[in-house]
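User: I'm putting together a small comparison set for a docking exercise, and I want a reference complex before I start. The sequence is below, and the ligand is T3D. Could you produce the 3D structure with the ligand included, as structure tokens?
Assistant: Of course. I'll restate your input first, then give the structure tokens for the complex.
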Amino acid sequence: MGNSEMNSDSFIKRGTLNMETIQITRHNGVGWLKWNRPEKLNALNETLLKEAAEAMQDLVADEDVRVIVLVGEGRAFSSGQDLTIESDADYGTYLEDVYHPLVRALTSCPKPLIAGIHGVVAGAGLSLALAADVRIVARSTKFSSAFIKIGLVADAGGPYHLKRLMRPDLAISWMWSGRTIDAEQAERFGLVTELVEDDVYTKALTEYAEALAKQSPVAVEGMKALFRAESFEAGLEEEIQWQRKCGQTDIHRQAMHAFLTKK
Ligand code: T3D
């Protein structure tokens, strides 16, 4: 494990840590989790999936990290499952033991989770990106529903998120086809939060994440929790708790004071 600008206990508080297959950077309230196998277009192998699950735990626990961003090094977000996996492996067990801890960590993340997507996003890489709250996408990105092409069902939580984000008939039809679509089509499908030109993609992504990190962390986290309330009544119950907490924050009190004193 190599590292740079490293300074602390489990991972680091600031700066960049390079693990074998991922890179974690903390800067201006944003925790960047970068897949780092550019020579394989960030194909997902066991080491990467395990390191990423561990990194997610650490970033969620770190009070200085207010927003988490998933990105890929090199020319792709991710080309999906590393296809050099042994073909006699039990895929069910592999999913359960290797994918699901990360998929759960992403989907249950209480902090805002952003996927910054460029180049190619395929198969299980797409499933991971769909677990994010928002997707900032470079215009030249290709979205591949590759699973069916190799005779597999869509997995890693993908079908659950697709059904939530787009019309279920369009989603299953796309998954059955194995088609690769461009970013404009993905936007029409509802998979893109912001579509940005390639030359401003990194800047736009950084600005989006850092602006979000400056908002009240209690309000941001509460908003995410309320959008996930399991029912209308549960949402009403939860908003009582969250608004009580928000009302007690300095950021809220200062904003009220500024309004009332016309500062
Ligand atoms: O256990 C489970 O159940 C989980 C299952 C999950 C299933 C899935 O994720 S299905 C999706 C699997 N992914 C794919 O089918 C995509 C495979 N890759 C491609 O079709 C192409 O690489 C791309 C269209 C994405 C890009 O093409 P291109 O021409 O721009 O690049 P390339 O030359 O094909 O790839 C560059 C290198 O990355 C190359 O390695 P090399 O020859 O230079 O040593 C290529 O083999 C490698 N690579 C790309 N994708 C993968 C990969 N290596 C392993 N696994 C990959 N998925």
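Confidence is low (pLDDT under 50) at residues 1-12. DSSP finds ten helices and eleven strands in the chain.
User: Thanks, that's exactly what I needed.
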